[in-house]
């Protein structure tokens, strides 16, 4: 059972998401919060698998709530998925750095929301295509980060290849096919890279890959 926490200051949004999610046999909404501070408290109380968190809220916003969840070792199993509007893409990079596992836009169709919850619960990075394009354009305009490049020096060549493919959006099965290895071996490379780079999840591997220049927008 995938346990979900809803954090949004709009009751109508929360009730709509709850009604949809609770219809699924493998998904359960365990709690709701109207601001980020309450959301963090409920995350500690219920230990959900997924926290769907609005990016703009009173008291504590979604970015700070994400940062607090990511910094708490007791909440290491909580995957934060940020809910955003198309006009808020300037916050995407900050929330990924804070520890968000991905982003969804609020006008997502029901089938895609359900798929997204299941993908995030598996620990895969989740970025809506429109958000991904804006994120890559943001990286084009910013300088490379030497610290990120130094961090990647810890990786083996195969682990670097794997991280680059994660940053391109490939799943473990797709990485396995590309590198002619088993899916379990691909998963092992991803997990070792996350451990060495102290990345919370695949989304942070994407950030590091672009920051270091391992992956260049538009490159091969």
TrEMBL record:
InterPro entries: CheY-like_superfamily, NreC/VraR/RcsB-like_REC, Sig_transdc_resp-reg_C-effctor, Sig_transdc_resp-reg_receiver, Tscrpt_reg_LuxR_C, WalR-like. The modification 4-aspartylphosphate is found at residue 54. Residues 3-121 form the Response regulatory domain. It comes from the Bacteria. Transmembrane segments: none annotated. Keywords: DNA-binding, Phosphoprotein, Transcription, Transcription regulation. The keyword DNA-binding applies. Pfam families: GerE (PF00196), Response_reg (PF00072). SMART domains: HTH_LUXR, REC. Residues 148-213 form the HTH luxR-type domain. PROSITE patterns: HTH_LUXR_2, RESPONSE_REGULATORY. CDD domains: LuxR_C_like (cd06170), REC_NarL-like (cd17535). Coiled coil: none annotated. This is Response regulator transcription factor. It comes from Nonomuraea corallina.
């Amino acid at each position: 059972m995938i346990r979900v926490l809803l954090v949004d200051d709009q009751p109508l949004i929360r009730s709509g998401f709850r009604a949809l999610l609770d219809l699924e046999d493998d998904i359960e909404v365990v709690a709701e919060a109207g601001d980020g501070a309450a959301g963090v408290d409920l995350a500690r109380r219920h230990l959900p698998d997924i926290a769907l968190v609005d990016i703009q809220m009173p008291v504590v916003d979604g970015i700070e709530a994400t940062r607090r969840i990511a910094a708490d070792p007791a909440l290491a199993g909580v995957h934060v998925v940020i809910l955003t509007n198309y006009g808020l893409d300037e916050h995407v990079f900050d929330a990924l750095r804070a520890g968000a596992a991905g982003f969804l836009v609020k006008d997502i169709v029901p089938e895609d929301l359900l798929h997204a919850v299941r993908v995030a619960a598996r620990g895969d990075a989740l970025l809506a295509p429109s958000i991904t394009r804006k994120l890559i354009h943001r990286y084009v305009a910013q300088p490379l980060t030497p610290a990120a490049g130094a961090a990647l020096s810890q990786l083996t060549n195969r682990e670097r290849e794997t991280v680059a493919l994660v940053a391109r959006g490939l799943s473990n099965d797709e990485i396995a096919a590309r590198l002619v290895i088993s899916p379990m071996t691909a998963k092992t490379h991803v997990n070792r890279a996350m451990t060495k780079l102290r990345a919370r999840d695949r989304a942070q591997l994407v950030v590091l890959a672009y920051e270091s220049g391992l992956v260049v927008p538009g490159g091969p």
